[in-house]
UniProtKB/TrEMBL annotation:
Domain Prephenate/arogenate dehydrogenase: from-to ranges: 10-266
GO terms, biological process: tyrosine biosynthetic process
Name this polypeptide is given: Prephenate/arogenate dehydrogenase domain-containing protein
A GO MF term: NAD+ binding
Family matches, as PANTHER family: AROGENATE DEHYDROGENASE 1, CHLOROPLASTIC-LIKE, AROGENATE DEHYDROGENASE-RELATED
Amino acid sequence: MASSNSSSPLKIGIMGFGPFAQFLSQTLLKRGHSLSAASRSDHSLLCSQMGVHFYRDFDELIGSDAEVVLLSTSIISIDNVIRSVSFDRLRRPLPLFVDVLSVKEYPKELLLQVLPEEADILCTHPMFGPESGKQGWKGLPLVYEKVRIRDHSLCQNYLEIFQSEGCIMVEMSCEEHDKVAAKTQFLTHTIGRVLAEMEIDSTPMDTKGFQALLQLNKNTVKDSFDLYGGLFVHNRFAKQELENLELALKIVKEKLLGSANGVSDL
């Protein structure tokens, strides 16, 4: 990908305006892009304060003059949201549709099924959020696949937002993303959820390793269980990683019990 210092101002419509969309919007606005949003929740006051035009429903957003439509709904709701939209209201030329979900094969297949055939699709996963990206996006990965792109200039213009912020640009198929994410993101969330169930807490004698576990627990539970459930249900590789974790725990337990038995036999 060619380097660029900045992208030209874009008109970006955002479907879903939860915490992650709000986080992205701060940087998009800082870079001079014009934003509009629609959400099932009433974010009109917040949008007014931020300088984002708020629409009451998704059809109004789709009928606007957005050049890019950013899909930032939850994993579990995107199917209902996308299928509820009247795409016959789309202006010509059609906007570039960009999803930012934490799974990739699922939205890719959904968008290919539901969107008009002439609509361009870019699947992305910014591998950061409000906590990890609060000091900026430099050095943080953006994973993306150009699923169906005809307007390469518009797609490049959008990607340059992240490139100009210093992101590591990782072009990867949605399938490969989900394979890797099952071993990294889903496994991380699973360990964090297990620690939360154990109700671990700080002590006067914390080691650095235990402090890392506490931080993992803290970071994980900030995300909703719906997000965690979506990482499992809509990533076909996650079930195998869960089974691998269960097997590994069983093996370690057996080794420990074997070691204990060996000591007791001395």
